[in-house]
Amino acid sequence: MRKAYIDAIGMYVPSNVVTNKDLEGRMDTSDEWIRERSGIEERHHVDGECTTDLALKAAEEALEKAGMTPEDVDHIIFSTMANDYFVPGGGPMMTRRLGIPGTPALDIRMACSGFLYGLSVAKAFIESGAYDNVLLITSEVQSVALDFSTAGRDTAVLFGDGAAATILKATDEDRGLLSVKTHSDGRYAEDLMLRTPSTLDNPFLTNELLDKGYGRVVMNGRSVFKHAITKFPAVINEALDAAGVNKRDVKLVVPHQANLRITEAVANRLDLELHKVVYSNIQKYGNTTSASIPIALYEALQEGRIEPGDKIVVASFGAGFTWGASVMTW
Ligand code: UT7
Q1: What's the pLDDT tens digit per position in 283-326?
Q2: Is 256 marked active-site?
Q3: CATH of 178-329, one of 3.40.605.10, 3.40.50.150, 3.40.47.10, 3.20.20.140
Q4: Which residues share a beta bridge with 6?
């Protein structure tokens, strides 16, 4: 049966590294608090670059690794929380940046679950025979929408900027995506959101709204944490069942990198060994939203932690709330 598989991944993070110590100078926080509560040591912030700048660098690397030119891309799927423009989205912008006008492109705005939702669309596109080569871009510039005063410290210290580009291709071989399961629950929308510009307000962008902080990311960290540690294991088990794979046969679980304590809790609940079976690189990048899973996959590959034939699980939880998991044979 025709399946979709990940052929290549590219990644890019801005060169500007921001350490916990750097943040101490901007708000009332400490390196110790950030490390203990989240596992994060540093993150990258843009210095004048926009979302499609990061995306382009990641896409160029992925295309080169796949031995493809931009013209070989049949469809772009673009995931971000923060586009260059509010409208149009980053998908069409990338056809311009890659020099492939006319290529179909769509945007998804599923925050931390953008990679999982992107996989679900790419899988359907490829399995149906509609497309052979799909470019899934996950690119996030969050530092421009964070509140770096003490009032925003519970959120600002966690997020980082970064991008990944994942090329999915068709195969008839015994490899590729076995299952993708996704969920959402808008009852918790306000627990992690960026409100403005918003049609709740008319006009939807005013200085008064910005003065109220509506143009910044706000989060109820405890609520996100509480839901994440139950939803992650549940959806991973659901995706394993759908794929007919036993968790003991899984080589590596690559969860969305939101907080090392969430990753530890998920490893415990699934009775899997952290660091051996459950991957983490949050210390270097913070939470890069939809880019975090493919960036982690990229590094796991580089470290030789993933080999052809391995059973790999990826999983996410974030704003919406949205969550999902996928099981694949590498
Ligand atoms: O992709 C999904 C997105 N987000 C997440 O997954 C985040 C999920 N939540 C979390 O990771 C955690 O809830 C946080 C890391 C955000 C917070 O950790 P916590 O252990 O839940 O801390 P808390 O919110 O209970 O706050 C503890 C204390 C508070 O002070 P008081 O009220 O005890 O005096 C906070 O004001 O820590 C204070 N605090 C800080 N102190 C220093 C909050 N942020 C900071 C900070 N530096 N950056």
Answers
A1: 999 999 999 999 999 999 999 999 999 999 999 999 999 999 99
A2: yes
A3: 3.40.47.10
A4: 168
Q: Identify any residues that bridge with 11 across adjacent strands, giving them in sequence order.
A: 164
Query: How far is ligand 1, taken at its centre, from the CA of residue 122, in Å?
Result: 35
231 lines ligand 1 (CB under 6 A): no
Which of 20, 83, 133, 287 is catalytic? The answer is: 287
Q: What is the pTM of this model?
A: 0.97
Ligand 1 within 6 A of 290 CB? no
The CATH classification of domain 3-174, taken from the options 3.40.47.10, 3.30.1130.10, 3.40.50.2300, 1.10.3720.10:
3.40.47.10
Cα end-to-end distance, the chain, whole Å = 16
HEC profile of 163-180? EEEEEEEEECCCCEEEEE
Q: Does 204 sit in the ligand 1 pocket, CB within 6 Å?
A: no
* Pocket lining: 92 vs ligand 1, CB cutoff 6 Å: no
Question: How much distance in Å is there from the Cα of 8 to the middle of ligand 1?
Answer: 36
Q: Is the distance from CB of 321 to CB of 112 less than 8 angstroms?
A: no
